Amino acid sequence: MEDGTQQEQASPAVQKRIQASFDRQGLMAHLGARITHIGPGCVHIVLPARPEVTQQHGYFHAGATSAIADTAGGYAGYTLFPEDTDVLTVEYKINLLAPAVGDHLEAIGTVLKSGRTLTVCRLEVFGLQDGGQRKLVANGQQTLIRVNQPTQ
Fold this sequence. Notes:
Blueprint: H1 12-23, H2 26-31, E1 34-39, E2 42-48, H3 62-78, E3 85-96, E4 104-114, E5 118-128, E6 134-148
Antiparallel strand pairs: 1-2, 2-4, 3-6, 4-5, 5-6
């Protein structure tokens, strides 16, 4: 896992395209999630802890955990797609490995294989404490499809 200081950045045009698309996602805004890194084939999304994203035991809800994982993978794939295309998730599987606790969650989507039509991504979600503790709480795999943008 990279330490965050040497991560390759996507081009400014790709970063702008990804951030603009992310900003149109009502669910991510509702959850309070934000993108913290956009690189070629790799996107990080952080979700701060708040009562609204927890389940009855106080852990991050699996739905919130899964949503940021799916979104991180989708945008990781999108960083490698041509400008006139868009991305949709075909399917994903996630394993919840440990209770999702921490001051925030960090989802990392990484492209494993980018194809003309289908792209496969690795999904990882970490629980992070402000003191620096980091624990893998979920991992999965995702298939994306590249689609043409609708004509206006």
